[in-house]
Amino acid sequence: MKELNPLLKSFLYILGGDIAIEVGNELLNSEEDDITDEGITENIKDRFKGENPDISFEENDGEFLKLNTVRKTLYKLYSGKLAQFRRIRDKSTGWFIYYWWHEFDLFEEILLEKRRVMENKLRDRLKFEENNYFFVCKDCKDSNNQFNFDRGFELNFRCPDCGGPLEAQENKDLIHFLMEKIVLIENIDLSIDTIV
């Protein structure tokens, strides 16, 4: 039986919990090129038959694993670009049959894309923090209202809640934190070959 890469396994867990890992195992180890959602459900049930697993796939302990749960998980993997499907209409019933297969070969590209998106968001936030001055009311303990310079100027640097003075807020720590995170993300090695 083939094993899921540990990083892929973690990513699957984030997408859909324990059931996503089990569905991923079934997709990876399917004897056919593609497998139906019913087939995946039955294979997981067969694998756990007679065992008392620590994990529970269903919240209402009535049934060990429902077909709908597997289908929802497959759609999560599809949304995460880790699975694909084709559907064929059953001529006798008129229902669609979905055949699924994994796209785990694209996992490294998916990680690189997510890293790029995260890095861009951090850079945008860093630019915003560096190019703005912020003001807060020190008298309003419960309020987390933060005003940029333009809004503070409109308010005549007075708190709209209590009328107290708005004071400049130092954001050097946040700027430093964002810079550290950007460097950290740039230096992460996401190549699948390096993960054992």
Can you put this structure into words, describing what you see?
- With 196 residues, this protein is of the alpha+beta class.
- The chain has 2 domains: 6-102, Arc Repressor Mutant, subunit A (Orthogonal Bundle); 109-194, no CATH class.
- The protein is built from 6 helices and 6 strands; from the N terminus they run αβααββαββαβα.
- The protein has helices at 6-29, 37-48, 67-79, 107-130, 149-154, 172-187; strands at 35-36, 83-89, 96-102, 134-137, 146-148, 166-169.
- Strand 4 and strand 5 form a beta hairpin.
- The longest helix is centred in the N-terminal third of the chain and has 24 residues, at 6-29.
- It is elongated, with a radius of gyration of 25 Å.
- 18% of the residues are buried.
- The mean pLDDT is 86.
DSSP strand tally: 6
Secondary-structure element order, N to C? HEHHEEHEEHEH
What is the name of the CATH topology of the largest domain?
Arc Repressor Mutant, subunit A
- CATH class of the largest domain, named Mainly Alpha
Low-pLDDT sequence parts: none
Helix content: 40-55%
CATH architecture of the largest domain: Orthogonal Bundle
Q: Determine the number of helices (DSSP H or I, runs of at least 4 residues).
A: 6
Please give the radius of gyration in angstroms: 25 Å
What is the name of the CATH superfamily of the largest domain?
A: Winged helix-like DNA-binding domain superfamily/Winged helix DNA-binding domain
Content-based structural category: alpha+beta
- Count of domains: 2
Please outline the major beta sheet: 3 strands, antiparallel
The rounded distance between the terminal residues' Cα atoms is: 17 Å
Average of the residue pLDDT scores? 86
| Strand order, largest beta sheet | 1-3-2
Coarse morphology: elongated
Strand content: 5-15%
